[in-house]
Amino acid sequence: MVPQQAQAQKLTLLVADNGAGYFGVHLNKPGQPKPYQAHVWRGGEQVYLGMFATAEEAALCVARTPEGRAAAAERAAAAAPLTSEEARQQAQAEKLTLVVADNSTGYFGVYLNQPGQAKPIQAQVRRDGRKVSLGRFATAEEAALCVARSPEGRAVAAERAAAAPPLTSEEARQQAQAEKLTLLVAESTTGYFGVYLKPGLSKPFTARVRRDGRRVYLGNFATAEEAALCVARSPEGQAAAAEWVAPAPPLTSEEARQQAQAEKLTLLVAESRTGYFGVILDSRSGLSKPYQARVWRGGKYVYLGSFATAEEAALCVARSPEGRAAAARAAAAEGQGAPPAVSSGASLKEEGTVPPMPPGAFVKGEGVVPPMPPDAFVKVEVVVKEEEGSGDRPKRQRTL
Q1: Do 116 and 198 belong together in one domain?
Q2: Of 28, 57, 78, which marks where a domain is finished?
Q3: Which of 36, 75, 146, 321 is 20 to 30 Å from the Cα of 289, by its Cα?
Q4: Please, which residues have CB within 8 angstroms of residue 64's CB and are 6 or more apart in sequence?
């Protein structure tokens, strides 16, 4: 009756973080017929308003006073409606839990009962065996934040945290979806960003993030997905999700060739297991992306990524400065009499990966003699080779 009466009189029962749950209301005589006292500050003094049987009745008395109306007006003016994302961030800042629930709004204590209104979402809890309205809100998350701030919301969150069994992989995914979080995948043994495996433990998956330059431990979990959910709830996980861009699907061999043609790039072929310059095959079984692209840069090999097809890896190499430079050298050699390479217009001889050619070196094509300097009497042939998988700079072999 009290909430309806307050609504009829267009009054606000102001909630507060105290034992009674309401502004100006205090529980000071437990066990008595009227244990709740209402008072306000007036003229620098505390003014007693009466004793009441329920906290809501005392809050209604406060709401009718000039002080209660003024406080309600100040709150309404100061508190602009929070967006869903702002409410989540505020809950995180206050270390509160927006408790999810299997209802139309998705949150405990939150109900949609005035569709089409500016504030269609109602927050309410059960207090002393009765439903207590905590206010109306524009978003379900803002209403859930109000519930989370209440003594009842805090108690439910604590109970769930203490009693909750480990989440299965599917439950963790569903929870992430309910909280609109992203479980970031990664190329690691666990498959998730910030999640690490410690075999032999009952909860073998560790969640951790880097914070202020240090690794911060977030907990151990039974499944990789539950650990990933913990990471996703952290500020670092949310920041990584905001920056993350979904990877493009792998290109087929034909799509990679067409893309190279569209970008006017050359997929340099080579005498290697993969057939392409800068592309090596990882022989480990079961890899979804077994082809690695790498180039020789600054005196060392630089890894460019792993790919599903040799052509997609070759496209990555072709886009690099080293790949463009090698293509230009091959094209220049071709202009001096070398035959065109099969399907790409350029050819390099390599085993695994070949670093950039030294100045003046010639890429050997079958049946092709390198151009001779004027009046030269000595045939010079330079062939650059590399043992596949070797990390050392290839040796130049010169035959006179």
Answers
A1: no
A2: 78
A3: 321
A4: 9, 11
- Asked if residue 72 lies in contact with residue 14, where contact means CB atoms within 8 angstroms, the answer is yes
CB atoms < 10 A from the CB of 332, how many?
13
User: How many domains does one find in the chain?
Assistant: 4
Q: Are residues 177 and 192 in the same domain?
A: yes
Q: Which amino acid is at 232?
A: A
pLDDT tens, N- to C-terminus, the chain (400 residues):
777 888 888 888 888 878 788 999 999 888 889 999 999 999 889 999 999 999 999 999 999 999 999 888 877 666 678 888 888 888 888 888 888 887 888 889 999 988 888 789 999 999 888 888 888 888 999 999 999 999 999 998 888 777 667 889 999 999 999 898 989 988 788 889 999 998 888 789 999 998 888 888 888 888 999 999 999 999 999 988 888 766 678 899 999 999 999 999 999 999 899 999 999 998 877 788 899 999 999 888 888 888 999 999 999 999 999 999 999 998 888 777 655 443 343 445 443 444 444 444 444 434 444 554 544 444 434 344 444 444 444 444 443 3
Extract the runs of DSSP E, i.e. beta strands, from the chain. Answer: 25-27, 36-42, 45-52, 110-112, 121-127, 130-137, 195-197, 205-211, 214-221, 269-270, 279-281, 291-297, 300-307, 347-348, 381-384, 396-399
Query: How far is Cα 363 from Cα 365, in angstroms, rounded to an integer?
Result: 6
- Domain residues for the domain of 339 are 253-399
Q: Is residue 248 part of a domain?
A: no
